[in-house]
Design brief:
CATH class: Mainly Beta
CATH architecture: Beta Barrel
Order of helices and strands: HEEHEEHEEHEEEEEEEEEEHEEEEEEEE
Strand content: 35-45%
Distance between the termini: 50 Å
Number of strands: 24
Radius of gyration: 24 Å
Protein name: DUF1302 domain-containing protein
Pfam families: DUF1302 (PF06980)
Number of helices: 5
Structural class: mainly beta
CATH superfamily: Porin
Oligomer: single chain
Helix content: under 10%
Largest sheet: 18 strands, antiparallel, barrel
InterPro entries: DUF1302
Length: 569
Amino acid sequence: MSDIQGFGRRFTAVSAALTFILPVCAPAIEFDGGIVNGNVDTTVSFGAISRVQGRDSSIVCIANGGTAYGCNADDGNLNYDTGMVSQVWKAISDIEVNHESGNMGAFFRVKAFMDTRNNSRTETKRTDLSKKAKQLVGEDVDVLDAYGWFRFNMADRPAEVRLGKHTLNWGESSFISGGINAINPMDFSALRAPGMELREALLPVTMVSGSVDPTNNLSVEGFYQLEWDQMMFEPTGSYFNTFDNETALHMGWGFTAENAMSVPRGADNSPDDSGQWGVAMRYFAEGMNSTEFGLYFMNYHSRTPVISGTASAGTPMAPIPPKNYFLEYPEDIQLFGASFNTNLGLWALQGEYSYKHDLPLQIDDAEFLVAGLGPVNAPNQVGTFGANDYVRGYILRDVSQLQATATRIFSDVMWAHQFVFVAEVGLTHVHGMPDKDDLRLEGSGTFASGNPLHRNLGKLSSPITESSDHFPDATSWGYQLIGEWTYANAFMGANLSPHAAFRHDVGGVSPVGWTGNFIEGSKAATVGVTATYKQAWAADISYTSFFGGGRYNLLNDRDYVAFNLKYSF
């Protein structure tokens, strides 16, 4: 009926992951005022994305000219024909201010951008971008980081405290999301933009954090957040968006116009700013092959939304859709984690395990929307509800995630000065997963109902019964491969770095609405080349293709070419 794919899809554009190993230009302007000194590091860039693939009718709503049994996932697809879909002018400045003692300072990061394609109402072909959408993908100026830090001794051991908007990176994951690194929400809209940088991936949050080294081999770190913030997903109508949730959900199984048989959106239920904290402990075991071990705990509120609703006041003779739906962010998810980082011969190895207690997982939207028909008591697997009753659209389950990464630098590969290879594999397991005959969770592209009883709901009858194979499984897994060749002084003093990336979701379907890491059979590949000159200029051109997974991979017709040019000073 709808799809909540946009709520948590991993780094689908594997080209974004390539920034993990590609060269970074790093000159800066320094200043020294005696007591205070510091530097300003600015990068200005222009980037563009061009769509090179036509629409796949199997993921476009029937009422919009396609064959899909859902109209809640195609606005972004319909808005952009082949050709240019994004042209971004951007500037990012990092400002460091330090006291001459070296014991205190401040850090600020400011970002400004304008997408000349998306900042105009006339550029989208079908649905105008809202004011909120334009702020995410059209034009904005924002202060990302803004914090002060102070270093001191605690019982003659080094310690540091930070206060303000900043990020913390915990765990050992490089590319696959949904693990230990849950402190800061991610900005998926920034990750998709041409010329993105890793420093844009995490959204800074106001918090106090601190660390201390009780011994030379042991460190302890902790944080307490002073505000809650959510993941930033591609807004409705933008090129990579796959969930049209801004104002209403459509219940017509794709046959009727989107303004008919729709459920209006109500006020979102956001969590408290308080109650989010965590601690981490890392131990460097020199006698165990110089391995670093980490243990983690945190209590946090969901960054990704789930959909719930209010039952209708319909009657058995006059059923109407639910009164409304709204987004919820359940509180007090507890995360337990462990990690390692070591070397084995010429390979750098790292890995982590995370266990999330009471993680909210989205119920198949067709199931809970039918449950919201209220007094009609339509057959469903969620429950029986009266007029205006709250209909919870999610279940709470414990979820484990295991992932490991291997990195190696080779010499003289294909005549390159060096070749960097990174491989990461991840596995997600939902403990106590309901049997699909009893209840199904939301899966990518599952527009029709998986409940055979929904074939007999009159005007609301599901046209088909969706195969249970495409709803989320208890276990799902996949991997990513990244490679970069570096040719030093290849052309007029410039370094050339061809690069390639490949992602494969091997088995199982992950629940949508949290990370949605894996959709069985889905693949993505990126090839490109980066040129850097004098550590100041960088240019990159790449091609990204999405394929596999059939109509359940909602990006399989979104192949694109990206270009960006950067100058740092």
